[in-house]
Every structure is written in structure tokens, then in C-alpha cells.
User: What shape does this take?
Amino acid sequence: MSLWRSKSSKVAMLEKVPLFKGLSRRQLDLIARLADELEVPAGERLAKAGATGHELFIIVDGQASVTTRNGRKVRLGPGEFFGEMSLLDGGPRSATVEAATPMRLLVLGHREFWSLLNTTPPLTGKIMRALSQRVRDAEAAVTA
Assistant: This one.
């Protein structure tokens, strides 16, 4: 794991992540304090289907390969996130996620994730909308 240079550069990077667009400087400062920074090589497994999930991952740079339990494959890139379902319902991971390329990530643990949801309603709404869209996409894939 390597850290970026400064809190201000971390906030500047957060401003470019669609999930955080429209948040106040104070809210971005909070996220910068709560999120850990992580760099991983291609091929690194970040989450395993069926395992207990303890963190939310936000992709800053790079691509992740997601394989659901039913074998559906999806690519995620900068600005996208994964791991929220396990944090929301306490259930096991629904997919296996690996770094398809070298990646830079922001990682929020369970406590930090809930702290953000409780103090940043706009972020909560964005996560809920993204989760709803993922459910709709999965349903469409099953019926197609």
C-alpha cells in the first residue's frame, strides 16, 4: 500500500469521482480523512464471492473484473465502486472482484462507511441509486 502525497491532492482526486460530485468541501475532507488509499497490481483479488465483506472500494485508476455467482462478467473503471452490498446488509460478497490492471483505490471500512452514510445524505442517495441500477441490470441479464 502506498499513500498519496497530501490531503489536498486526495480531496482534488475525490472531486473527480462521480460518486462524490456535488458534495461540499467539508464532506470531501471527511471522506479524505476516513478513506484509506491502496495501490494493487493486476491480478490481485479484492473480494471473493461468498466471503464476508468488510469494506467499500472506490476505483480511482485502473480496471476491475467482476464475476458474479451466476458467471456474469462486468468491468468497472475509475469512479465506480463495489462492496457496498455486504456493508449494507451484512451478507456475504455477491461477486469475486480482481484487479484487471494495476489499480489505485480508496477503501472505506464498515465503521467509516456507516459514518459517511449517516453524515452525508447526498452520498447515501447516490449509493442507493447505483445499487438499484445494479439490481435492474442483473434482472435484465437473467431475463435476456
Helices lie at 7-14, 25-34, 84-89, 110-119, 121-143. The chain has a mean pLDDT of 86. The chain has one domain: 7-137. The domain at 7-137 is CATH 2.60.120.10 (Jelly Rolls).
